[in-house]
Amino acid sequence: MPAGEILTEQSARTGGAPEAQALCWISDDVPSARLLAALRADHRRTGLWPLLVVDDDEVYGDRCTVGVVPPEPIEHVDRWNAADVMSRIWNGLCQADNDLGPAYPPETLQPFDEVCPGLAMSGNLLADPDILANQQAHRFVDESTRLALVPVDRGADALTTLGWSGAANHVSRTAGLSAMLRSWEERFGARILRLGPDRLDVSVAAPPQEGAHAAAVAAEHWTFCPDRVLQDADGIGEYATEIRGRRTWSFWWE
């Protein structure tokens, strides 16, 4: 293993305290793709999920991805299911203000409307999810990337247990997003690859291949991260064409 240190909520923000709960181990240097693959294969034995992290110290301070807000217990993720998360966020985004109207123009929802369409059907696996994750990971490594080892059973839970605040302008807590990621792990062979201050990248082993399926997945992405869908596309329909067959999904929040 390379040199590194254990980070806690307090040490990530203010220099730390000996009694603080450990959130993860993080490397001092850029990890190799070979090391990442070996640690992923060893996850079941170690209970440590390998995750690439990248920070923006110009905005938040050194290593801000970890411990920015108090981490939530895993039990909070267990309370949610992806369909309920999607429905609640969809209804909230489509709720009209008496004076200002809906938060988003109706045309951005096409081919859907203000009624939540529900979860998309599962995709067909085109590759082994873990092998694909190893193959795609190198694309997300640069000089600012570090390796984190997070004590979670699955990568989706890292958002919640690390005290990550990247989506704070969208949702107040991350347990619901972790629940959606769990569902993507199961339905689309998704594996979380990299986490940044306001960014998330995942590999996808069972991406949507057909137009209608891609639109249904795009609707989920809109509830997960509206900024990603609307900044680079006119709405869900256009964004759907972008993700057809894609082996990685990337999200960012303003």
Poorly predicted ranges: none
| Number of strand segments | 9
What average pLDDT do the residues reach?
A: 88
Provide the helix percentage.
25-40%
Q: Helical segment tally?
A: 11
Content-based structural category = alpha+beta
| Overall 3D form | globular
Q: What's the story with the biggest beta sheet?
A: 7 strands, mixed
What does this 3D model show about the protein?
With 254 residues, the protein is of the alpha+beta class. It has a domain at 4-79 and 129-204 and 247-252. The protein has helices at residues 9-14, 33-41, 43-46, 74-78, 82-94, 129-137, 158-161, 175-188, 211-224, 226-231, 236-243; strands at 4-8, 22-27, 49-54, 96-97, 101-102, 145-150, 190-195, 199-204, 248-252. The strands form 2 sheets. A 7-stranded mixed β-sheet has the order 1-2-6-3-7-8-9. A two-stranded antiparallel ribbon has the order 4-5. The longest helix is centred in the last third of the chain and has 14 residues, at 175-188. The protein is globular, with a radius of gyration of 18 Å.
